[in-house]
Structures
1.
Amino acid sequence: MQTVKLTIDNKTVEVEKGTTILKAARKIGIDIPTLCHFEMCDMNIENKPGGCRICVVEVAGRKNLAPACATEAQDGMVINSHNIRVLNARRTVLKLLISDHPFDCLVCSKSGNCELQSLATKFGIREIPYQGEKSTYRKDTSPSIIRDVDKCIMCRRCEMMCNEVQTVGALSAVNRGFKSVVAPAFEMDLEKSPCTYCGQCVSVCPTGALTEVDHSNDILRALSDRTKTVIVQTAPAVRAALGEEFGLEPGTSVTGKMVAALRRLGFKFVFDTDFAADLTIMEEGTELLDRLGRYLKGEEDVKLPMLTSCCPGWVNFFEHNFPDLLDIPSTAKSPQQMFGAIAKTYFADKIGVDRKNLVVVSIMPCLAKKYECQRDEFKVNGNPDVDFSISTRELAAFIKQANIDFMDLPDEEFDNPLGESTGAGVIFGNTGGVIEAACRTAYELHTGKTLEKVEFNALRGMEGIRSATIDFDGLPLNIGIAHGLANARKLLNEVRAGRSKYHAIEIMACPGGCIGGGGQPYHFGNSEILLKRAASLYNEDDCKTIRKSHENPHIMRLYDEFLGKPLSHKSHELLHTTYFDKSDEVAINHD
Amino acid sequence: MTRVKSLPELVYMKKVLEAEKAKYKQHVHVCGGTGCHAAQSIALDEKLKRIINDKGLSPDVHVTSTGCFGFCEKGPIVKILPDNTFYTEVTPNDAREIIDNHIVAGNKVERLLFTDPVTNERVSDSEHMEFYKKQKRIALRNCGAINPENINEYIVKDGYQALGKVLTELDAQRTIDIIKKSGLRGRGGGGFPTGLKWEITSKVEADQKYVVCNADEGDPGAFMDRAILEGDPHSVIEAMAICGFAIGGSKGLVYIRAEYPLAIQRLQKAIAQARDLGLLGENILGSAFSFDIQLRFGAGAFVCGEETALIHSMEGMRGEPTFKPPFPSVSGYLGKPTNVNNVETFANIPVIINNGAEWFASIGTEKSKGTKVFALAGKINNVGLIEVPMGITLREIIFEIGGGIKNGKKFKAVQTGGPSGGCLTEKHLDTPIDYDNLTEVGSMMGSGGMIVLDEDDCMVSVAKFYLDFIVEESCGKCAPCRVGNKRLYEILDKITQGKGTWEDLERLKNLSSVIKDTSLCGLGQTSPNPVLSTLENFWDEYVEHVEDKKCRAGQCKALLYYVIDEDQCVGCTACKRSCPVNAITGDKKQAHYIHQDICIKCGACEEKCAFDAISIQLEHTPKKIENANS
């Protein structure tokens, strides 16, 4: 390893050649402030356009100040990170940014989580001497995401996420100079763009320019309506992250407290999306075995690999970008929608409530779920299977507003029958979790044998694209896993070209899977947080007595009493869906 | 056309073409540059040809449409060789007279000759014109001398012999050494040593390297690159091939503004002709070297002249710069090593190879060799494109070549270096011009814009004008340039509105220095120069605007005062009735008075006054206002 030695604020540091000044400084405890720079090392995600110029430092012998995030450390460099020249530049640039920013912190949904606000506080900005025109744009509200780009500071993080990490291409810089802003092409509405609503742009936006559509008030209204029975389902990844909003260590599982809080908020029944995840495995696993069986028999029109279909961002992505492959994904609905369909039929009958008076709320780590529950095919006579979907962040705010001392809550259990789940349902929140859960069930159904070890470690990890071959008692099953849509695109291009070696592929739109979803508490680029959330879910799985979906007693009862068997006529009617060609809406082709 | 397969073949071809040309007794050169083009020079050219033909003079007289002569102020230009007669502002109606009197009878058409603005005398030929006397045309050597649409004319002027020489007599390193030794520096504004740039690119290992010609000329008023591409496109093509040979690249790209249709058309024609002769394409002149050129069109963004932005634009991305390093020499177009040079830089290359590094290095100053083309404009008698040796003084350019200030006004400043250059004053007039001297005095070479200002120009307004341009052209990527320049503009605007404060002057200084210090690319790093150099050299004017609410040049409308002369005013009330804001008081038959704090300077009163009692003053006496208000 070639190293370079440099001096920063009179301290000497030796780093690997190619390291930036910023990282070299952090190595010796000098925390140079940044704004546009964004990095998640474990996810291989980096944004360093060198645009905000907050991280500038003085390099001896250099004419102008250097951005620490983009300048490579050189041998013998002498750097000052906080002399008067540097501080004056940093403060002036900060004042300039604020001079073109709305002064509405009091009513901004990002207040408290805003990185511009934090910097203004840190640098003690008390007045803005530059009074002039401010950039103003129309507000753009889509089913999931609100763009309030008056607050855009052109850090380009969202653009990097949308184009490099997700290859969605919905957002990019448009216009020039003072008028430049990040927007869909031709400044069209996000809804008309190829946006998948994955929400990764929201999760990295340093200001309030990109936020989620808030449905808390709709839920409050439903809860206060006496004619309505309001029930709630919570996705697996929520319990691994909600605690962060209450100051708990990332990765602290708060399942019991969350259930207690939801009950206190007034939900009549607190259910678990994990139950529906088990149901998904029953349907999807059976579908996989069915396709495999027919394939092995030599049927030619059988489509392999089969792709998972739990992730609505991913579904949007292939509907926009791979309309020729619409028959490849599993037809199984996502757990959220399976839950809604069962709740408004089986469960509504059970408690004798008309579906119109049953309000199903979902708590999701995801912003695309807001869009998913509004899709027409998931409605019966205009009544949606899932009425409202709110994010982990919105739930936290809701709990705080209801004066609930979260930390003081006892651990409570989910209600039955839709609250019982297995460890297989819990790990749905992690990348690789769905396919692992599917393997646990498919293996046993296919081979008739009991798994000695339910963990498939080969399917776990944070590599963007992973693959493993699972021995199904003599049948080697090739499994592919991708998280992040750029990775998904690579696998899909192989499928399209007929070069894919896989029998089944799991795809999650967000890096890390649902634990890194667009609706989760802000991680501010700390990928360590995602790793801890993932570990938390695997731990919860480990603690469960039942860890295979087909062993969930309530699932078995559901089939006995209502559905018959997986892929039955009733299952098809309630638990499966079709996909649509949305390619005419795609503006940018990345292939 | 048959391919030229070797250097000796090319030399032979030149001789044959030269002999053909020598058959003509007289040559008529009609300027076909964009400026003259717009003034009907094509019709003029056609008419001259028709008459020559009709009169059976074709075997003896050759009429050619050439590139720009540089003296655009007086276009269309017609030059007659061998006697160098220089006709100005020629129209198609003058064609017959030129042919009958001059070509046939040998008498110059006096009325079309150039009149010297200082002596007021007609000048018989270009050799005696002050405009050309101190010029040294190297990059522009063929502009106005050959038909750019005919490769044969370029070949007669030793065209492609430099390429032949490097391919047959030199190797890559020796070619680079010549350019290094010549001392040529980038003419696009950066001033980076060209040979060194080539050497760096040549040393990077890659399967493909690119030669890029930066023809994204964006400085307002600058048109040297356009003139070269329109007047001598082959010199650039030849130079790009030489560069390709030197760095080890086989692909060339010209990034040119789509707003230069004539340059594009001539460049395309030239590339096609060069390909036909085998001077571009596979195995050029029988060597192992292959090279070809494609065009890429820019949409007119100023920032795309910055090399990383230019490369992104060529890649189909948003035209905005990225942080350097990596420099394009290492990772440029499509991530491959890319050598980017400006049009004018390239135009110098073939002559340097042909005449030698020592010859080139003998021209200019110690650190800036050769010549520089400037677009001379503004309040000056001889506006146009000039090429002068480095080291010439501003005084020589403005008062000799430029013929001094228009209408006998007083020289005030000269703005050099384009929109992000600086304003230099009387005290800088004798500074020898080169890269380093201009930077030292707070301006820069830039791509060679030179705008002369006289006493009627307000320096705050001048700074504001340039900032307005910068605000339009900033790409928006980095915060100091995107927001900072906008705020600079707003403060300058406030000062010209008479609302400036001392704090604003302080803000201008701080903001300017921070923008320079923190911006991402050359655009932002130099954009406050007009503000800083005017603050430095014209501080008094800023103070007058802020403190005395006065604009000495009378350019700032808000700082003009409509004043009624009490002695002239008869109290007819016409002005009072015409004032839309009731700023005028006064009784019938009494002298009226304009309240400056209410007046919106619409000028309606002055128009209505039949007694010439209302005039525009640069200052007003506050004492009177106090009297009137009391």
Note: Chain A is about 35% helix and 15% strand.
2.
Amino acid sequence: MSFDCSEHLNYKVLHLTGEIDLSNSSEVRRCLLDIINQDYSVIVDFSELTYIDSSGMAILVEGLNTANKKKTSLKIAAANGAPRQVLELTRLDQVFTLVDAVSDVKE
Amino acid sequence: MFAQIEKLGASVIQKFEEVGRLSVFLYHTVLGLFSRPFGFQELLKQIAFIGARSMPIILLSGLFTGMVLALQFYDVLARFGSVDLMGSAVSLSLIQELGPVMTALMVIARVGSSTCAEIAIMRNEQQFDALTCMAINPYRYVMAPRLLAALISIPLLTAIFNLIGIFGGYVVGVFIKGLSGTAYMQTIIDTIIWSDLRMSIVKSFLFAVIIIWIAMGKGFFVHLEKGVSGAESVGRVTTKAVVASAITMLFADYIASSFLI
Amino acid sequence: MTENSQKPSVLIDVKDLNSGYGDRQVLYDINLSVNDGEILVIMGGSGSGKSTLLKNMLGLKEPSDGRVLVHGLDLSNASQSELLKLRRSTGVAFQGGALLSSLSVGDNIKLPLRQHTDLDENTISIMTRLKLELMSLADCEDLMPSELSGGMLKRAGLARAVIMDPKILFFDEPSAGLDPVTSVELDQLILKLRKAMNMTIVVVTHELESAFTIADRIAVLADGELVTTGSVDEIKACTDKRVANLINRSPRDVQIDAEKYLSRLTKGAK
């Protein structure tokens, strides 16, 4: 698993690669919350994410909640395959704003 | 005739098996005391249950025991013209014998029965299997805190029983029989020596182990009781635990007394 | 095309398992394997030995002969740490839930997370609520187990079993004591879990409808023996009497001797 940050327009993009599970989700949490606490809006890029478990989902939920409180936004891009199914199973696909690709975010 | 002997043999073997099982159980429970992370939350809960909530019953029984002892001794001592020894008689009986034994009996009635039932129900509902499958050691998480809580609470309860009993004796001796209060207290201070207190302490720890060990152990193996299941098995095993711990405690009392007096 | 992509990998392997209690043998020479990602249903009537088989597969019971291998690990010979690692990625949903009576539903579900991970308490809380929502138990977080109905207890037990997203899930009698509607919902949940989380699921049951709905393969147990294993269609077409009995649920047809029956009914009447 690895992750890195880039930028798109005035968003920070958190690019996740590989699998997120109990062993590494805390790291991702720290990074995500850091970005949000600096008042950035975030796009979480799932395009190279192959697996995410409930701890990963919980972190995104916490991130979304924090962002909402700060009046910034958190979107998820390119959710496919297993991660998509997890979003649907947990009905979080109705809670998060999902886009097909980072480039689809226009403003 | 042989059938009778067979039956006898079978029940003796069963008893040995049970003692063996309970010994292994105690061993694992003690090991559980030293495993991380220790269940502190559960420990505190159990100290509250075994110790704090037994206070009313200990205070009442201690008081009445002390009062009866005073009446009893007054009668006996008066025949020998030694009523001024009342203080030491009452306190010695309490500290050496009645304190530990009565406290143990009260705790058996209250804590022994409910702990046994609780553990038995956990067994019947597969809660121990669930803990094992979650890789949580049941001895560390459930049994060890109860053992430690008993070792902390019961000696303290015994000490409280002794104190309130001495007070009860004081009340009867001074206010009912007209003895001198200071004389009562003085004889106590003069007579009681460290080995008396040591006996009280050693017995209370010993009884604590016996009570909680038998209560938990019998409950833990409820699924091995033949011929019963469900609620009936819980009832049966609880009764057995109360009886077994009372008898074992009294026997241990005799052994301890013969070594320590 | 490599051989690997054709042959499913075996996750759990039960080899020549013989097991019993004291003098009483319950299982005879059981050979069974569970493949990665499949849903295997173990079916049998009462007394068939399915609970004992489950206990052996969970490592709760030692076999008298034979072995149980999970991820290649022999359960009887595994070290404590190997067993610990395995148990962390295995979830078990017991009949009746087996929740700890002194903890609330929420604390019960959080227990494995608190004991085995150092996840932040916020994360743990959200994870727990996600699972509760999945099981339709959203309002039950602060209730005590004694306040739940039988069906709710089962679902809470399942929530706890899957809280760490295990690779293997065991489910003991999911439908026992549930009404048909809840039972169907539970079946659908099992299927969804496998799909989204790629779980391998072993279900022990005697409910036919559930078995046929969810199973990839069914293993039929009778009198301590493994009668047959196969897909749903294969089992339905099986000609073995014991299997057929189980499937058709027919009370064995008894020819009535009218006179004798009448006299049994009226014995002792004046």
Note: The two ends of chain B are 46 Å apart (CA to CA).
